[in-house]
Amino acid sequence: MNKDKPNHTSEHLANERTFLAWMRTSIALMGFGFILVKFSLFLKQIPLVAEAKNTVHAQNGHSSLVGIVIVIVGAIVLLFSYINYYNNKKRINNNTFYENNIFLLIVTTVLFLLSIFLIHYLLNNI
Per the UniProt record, which residue ranges are transmembrane (predicted)? Predict the structure, then answer.
């Protein structure tokens, strides 16, 4: 081991754990969006299977769109988390680490706007 170079093993491991946590978050978002889209398709098929031609489907068809938006947000979170991981890795190696609040601000803003959108959507479909 080179004694001139500082050992940043614990910092790299913490950076990787943080990245993996963001990956789990993005996978959960994409999974939730996927389930929402599939459930919407399932609800549209019920009247066809039951052969109930006079059944009124109260859903306005926005569930699929909401699900797709959630999948896109999950993919964006995944992309930003990798960029943040890679930048932190470089900063740790260069011994110039500083906090980066822009990533957290972007993700928090996107998820907050998504939650407002979902609340609005749910209140309109009660």
Answer: 21-43, 63-82, 102-123
**CA gyration radius for the chain?**
21
Six-digit token string for 2 = 């080179």
Measure CA 34 to chain center. Answer: 12
Residues in the chain: 126
Cα gap 15→82, rounded to integer Å: 11
- Amino acid, res. 26: S
Q: What is the pLDDT of residues 74-101, one digit of tens each?
A: 999 999 899 999 999 999 999 887 777 8
SS (H, E, C) 47-112: HHHHCCCCCCCCCCCCHHHHHHHHHHHHHHHHHHHHHHHHHHHHHHHCCCCCCCHHHHHHHHHHHH
